[in-house]
Amino acid sequence: MRGFLRRAHERFLRPLLRSLAGVFAPLLKALRNVRVLRALVQGVFLTLLGLLVYWLYTNYRENTEDLRFGYDFFSTTAGFTLSEGIPHDRTDPNWKLFLAGVVNTLRVIGVGIVLASLLGLIAGVARLSRNWLIQRIATVYVETIRNTPLLVQLFFWYTATFLQLPPVRQAVELPGAIFLSQRGLVLPRPYLTEGASLWGTFLWIGLVLGIFVYLARRVHLKRVDRPGAPGLWGFGVLALFAVAGWVAAPVPPVAWEVAELGRFNFRGGMQLSPEFAALLLGLVVYTGAFIAEIVRGGILAVSKGQREAALALGLTGYQTLRRVILPQALRVIVPPVTSQYLNLAKNSSLAVAIGYPDLFNVANTIINKTGREVEMILVIMASYLSLSLLTSLFMNWYNRRIRLVER
Amino acid sequence: MADVPAETRTKPYGGEVLPPPTVRVGPLRWLRENLFSSWWNSALTVGALALLYVVGKGVLTWAVTEANWAVIPASLKLLLVGFYPEEELGRVWAVLYGTVVLLGLSAGLWGGLLREAAVLLGAGVGVLLGGLLLAGWGERGLLGGLLLLLLGGAVVGGWLRARAPVLLLRWGKRVVGGGWLLLPIGAVLLLRGVPGGELWAEVPVARWGGLLLTFSLAVVSIVLCFPLGVLLALGRQSSLPVIRWTCIVYIEIVRGVPLVTVLFMASLMLPLFLPSGWEINKVLRAIAAFTLFTAAYVAENVRGGLQSVPKGQIEAAQALGLGPVLTTLLVVLPQALRAVIPANVGQFIALFKDTSLVFIVPLLDFLGIALDVLENPKWGGPAREMLLFVALVYWFFTYFMSHMSRKLERALGVGER
């Protein structure tokens, strides 16, 4: 019996094991190879990811049996209108309304970024002011605004401020023909008169000459290797022609159209809805507080010695600021301010809470009307992604321009 | 130079080095230096004073004569816990008591920052609720108990630290630390209850609301998003291209879109992409959105920390024979995470503020329920009072957190070592 077992072992089992080992040994050896291992790990990861996506996709197909994925609803009639935006009506296709929403978003972002930068700059400098009172006020502003949710502030500006203003008939009139009421903010609107064509000609000539002077100055400065402000020269020429054209025109080329109180509402002028005004105010005040902190940090980051050295070299106060402090502070300031601009753009989607027809709000309405959630969500995300991308591309370009050129 | 003792400094003229003279500034001189140093400064001061007078007078007159503050105490229960059943409120108190005992004990055991946190939080909550708003003596008693427990915990912890044997102290610290880890899970279990339980009836999360919901959303999302964020950061630094690019795409997409979109997606699309039998309630959807969103930002913070770990550390670990996994776990991550604590606290503060966006889902969190109360015609829309109160509460917690984070940053000495 034992002999049989040994024979069986030697005849069959050992060769079998040996051949198996011959097959598996390279495999085991391969598993210890880093390249193979890396490929394997990535393969497994990719497979799992694919399975997850496939699982989600099958669920989606099951849950939406009769709905087919597609963008044909974009060209069907919308059947609703927006409270403001580029001209449109109920019979326009969905894409046109969505476009109106995009334009509304861009409007808020564009104005918001400019105003928030100004406010942030002022508040940031004020936080470093040697005037105790100003510095305290700026600190209170920054600490209050940064530590409360933006949404609460938006509701405060909209529900508790703009909607509590007096009705149109008792609108508050501020100096400069500005009216504040429940219907929002009404400003005078500039418009062109008959004198505009002559003035326009002057402006064109000024622009061309200005560019010419600017280039000439720049080339000259480069040749003699001296610092200077060629841009100022160019602008000077342009301004000179603008003033001359203004004087030469028979009537002032630009006049202000002041709003008049009609029977139900204001007529004429530049009318900003309470939604737009509240959203803009909220975004500007909120983002301004964050930018203020960045500006403060940027100015503090320039070491004191730099300023003292510049003054010791005989530069004037303005030259010190323009040529020494600002270039160094800006390098620190620009990257975080870029992300604040991006935040402002993204936060503009909170418009949906107070009913301003921005792109998210319009997309939401389209979803409610057509039931195409997935398609519209993809469009929304693509819109915001391209907005973010454009903003950061521009700011990266600016950042490259001002960064320190290292040795 | 700063840490050289004064005695050993070189003495230029043989004598002692005296500290610089302290200048005593009288009030008039202070005014002249800080408010009226130049004509421009004086103009600023006068302008600011005039502005403050006009605004302050307007706000004060409104707050005293016109404002209808009664709406806040009348709807306080709604604001704090939403539609949580009245007879089950004891559980909320129990969670509060548990937290306070833990905080008190930790304040005593570790001292330092934790003690300051306990003092600030105790004082703040005491003033905010006890003094100003609560009419009922029952609640006042409960709040008093809260403060007493905080103090008691601190005393016990302090005694342990000062007097107790080392072994007891060590175990005390372990127990309290474990308590903090278990607190979120325990709190959720206690507040939610068991389905069909007799003693511990289920309170569906749909009935949670107000500040309770805000805190639940924030705490659970913070706890969940942190590990996910660390994984994403590690994935982004990985040398395997497939994993690296997946993480990059995820992080960049999420950071490029507003939180509102992510929330909207979670509330609308999550049910579409899951099997039809799966029921996911709104609170979980919101938590999923917050977690997925904040994880991308945490990942970017952690990546900064990972990049700040010197390469020599990794090479040293490899030289000692540690594999890639152990190198990451034992050498890289501890240093990276320590460096990014302040940035992550900032992220969590942002998350706490952003929980107010759940109106999209929709859920009635602290802000949501405040707006809901305003809809009630009984109050005639006292929007300003309510929103100011809401803002004050948010401000209290957020300012507290950012204050502690600044202290923590200084205590850790990030960027100084």
Structure report:
- The complex is a heterodimer of chains A (407) and B (417).
- By secondary structure, chain A is an alpha+beta fold.
- Chain A folds into three domains: 2-58; 94-150 and 273-402, MetI-like fold (Orthogonal Bundle); 196-248.
- Chain A has helices spanning 2-31, 34-63, 94-127, 132-146, 150-162, 196-224, 230-248, 274-301, 304-312, 317-347, 351-354, 359-370, 373-402; strands at residues 172-174, 178-181, 184-187, 189-192, 254-257, 260-261, 266-267, 270-272.
- Chain A is extended.
- The model of chain A has no long low-confidence stretch (mean pLDDT 86).
- Chain B has 417 residues and is mainly alpha-helical.
- Chain B folds into two domains: 87-202, no CATH class; 218-417, MetI-like (MetI-like fold, Orthogonal Bundle), CATH 1.10.3720.10.
- In chain B, 73% of the residues lie in helices and 0% in strands.
- Chain B is built from 17 helices and no strands.
- Chain B has helices spanning 27-34, 39-66, 71-74, 76-81, 89-110, 112-131, 137-162, 166-192, 210-237, 241-256, 259-273, 282-308, 311-319, 324-339, 341-354, 366-375, 383-412.
How are the secondary structure elements laid out?
The complex is a heterodimer of chains A (407) and B (417).
Chain A: H1 2-31, H2 34-63, H3 94-127, H4 132-146, H5 150-162, E1 172-174, E2 178-181, E3 184-187, E4 189-192, H6 196-224, H7 230-248, E5 254-257, E6 260-261, E7 266-267, E8 270-272, H8 274-301, H9 304-312, H10 317-347, H11 351-354, H12 359-370, H13 373-402
Antiparallel strand pairs in A: 1-2, 2-3, 3-8, 4-5, 6-7
Chain B: H1 27-34, H2 39-66, H3 71-74, H4 76-81, H5 89-110, H6 112-131, H7 137-162, H8 166-192, H9 210-237, H10 241-256, H11 259-273, H12 282-308, H13 311-319, H14 324-339, H15 341-354, H16 366-375, H17 383-412
